[in-house]
Amino acid sequence: MCLATVWRFWMVLGLVSGSLSLGCERLQLQQVLDTVTLSKLHKMGGHFPRHCIRQRLSLKTKPLDLVKLSDGFETQERTAIIHQTLHHINKIYSMNLGSVTWAWDKVENFRLILDQQLRELQDCLRKSGSDHKLKRNAAIQHYFRNLEKFLKHKKFSECSWEIIRDETRARLQQLHFIMAQVNRRN
Questions:
Q1: pTM, to two decimals
Q2: pLDDT tens-digit readout, 128-143
Q3: Could you count the other beta carbons within 10 Å of the beta carbon of residue 56?
């Protein structure tokens, strides 16, 4: 059963990456990757653990509203926000994962699909001519810096990772909405 899942995963990646290489006008396929990423994230840990609910309140950073942040931006700028957000998510999941209770194969699948999304978006941004100087959004950087500090402060505990996974899910859902907005415009 695991082999069939891996095979389907690589088939979707192959089909999507072939389609996405046709250009940014095919960004709707980025939504497929985002859906797969959300699914992988959920399969990694399932529902938020009850014993971590109290610790959830210890995350003092203000939630990041990517939809509001991207409001009024053109496609290229929204794509840059999506890229920057995925870059930071990928960076966080490259940190100390020693205390997580998630299956490593599921973590690796999640990271692989994130890498694929980043490569596709990088190609898209490069084709649009904005690759040489991606604007960094200060609000995105500040938010993810606070998440990294939170993980370090909590010594990368199981519950701190579950809180980060919950925050990641919320940001990926917002990115999905932004991608849908971009696709309606194109």
A1: 0.79
A2: 665 444 556 889 999 9
A3: 14
**Residue 79 tokens, joined:** 């794509």
Within 10 angstroms of residue 161's Cβ, the number of other Cβ atoms is 25
Could you report the per-residue pLDDT of 47-94, keeping only the tens digit for each?
888 888 888 888 888 889 999 999 988 888 888 899 999 999 999 998
Instruction: Give me 56's structure tokens.
Output: 């959830």
The angle subtended at Cα 83 by Cα 81 and Cα 89, nearest 5°, is 105
- The 3-class SS string of the chain reads CHHHHHHHHHHHHHHHHHHHCCCHHHCHHHHHHHHHHHHHHHHHHCCCCHHHHHHHCCCCCCCCCHHHHHCCCCHHHHHHHHHHHHHHHHHHCCCCCCCCCCCHHHHHHHHHHHHHHHHHHHHHHHHCCCHHHCCCCHHHHHHHHHHHHHHHHCCCCHHHHHHHHHHHHHHHHHHHHHHHHHHHHC
Q: How far apart are CA 89 and CA 167, in angstroms?
A: 10
Q: Are 115 and 63 in contact (CB under 8 A)?
A: no
| Res 25: pLDDT | 55
Residues 124/20, Cβ–Cβ less than 8 Å: yes
What pLDDT was estimated at residue 152? 94
